[in-house]
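User: Hello! I'm new to structural biology and keep hearing that structure can be predicted from sequence alone. Could you demonstrate with Alkylhydroperoxidase AhpD family core domain-containing protein? Please show me the input and the output so I can see what each looks like.

Assistant: Of course. The first part below is the input, the amino acid sequence of Alkylhydroperoxidase AhpD family core domain-containing protein. The second part is the output, the predicted structure written as tokens.
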Amino acid sequence: MAIARNRSEVEAEIREHLGIVPGFMKDIPEAYLDFEWELFKSLQLGETLIPNKYKELMGVALHSETKCRYCTLFHAETAKLFGATDEEIQEAVHYAKMSLGWSAYLNGMQTDYDEFAGELKQIGNYVKENMAQHAH
């Protein structure tokens, strides 16, 4: 295992990126701080396969369900930093509400999974065919 940087080195880098060392990072034990910061920096702030704005909108939707007000606030504000509008944030939350409703219904009604999967495949094939026909 690689030797982690000490707290002061990591906190200096955090300050460089964020302007402060947030309290939630100050509380991370020193043995884990370097690892947690590197993960946060690369996945939360870095460019990944999913553009940052969309990752943050996913975070808003996810935490509107987990009902973590810290994470909901964090992801909403970070989404705005990456260019999301209030309307996009509202849409992400509304999408989560709709999707969770269907999840509750399908699970509560104990919908046959294999039948559902087969129907979804049929729908996908139909939509692809119609998209191809309308493209010509």
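User: So the tokens describe the shape?

Assistant: Right, they're a compact way of writing down the 3D structure. Reading them back into a model, for example: The chain has seven helices and no strands.
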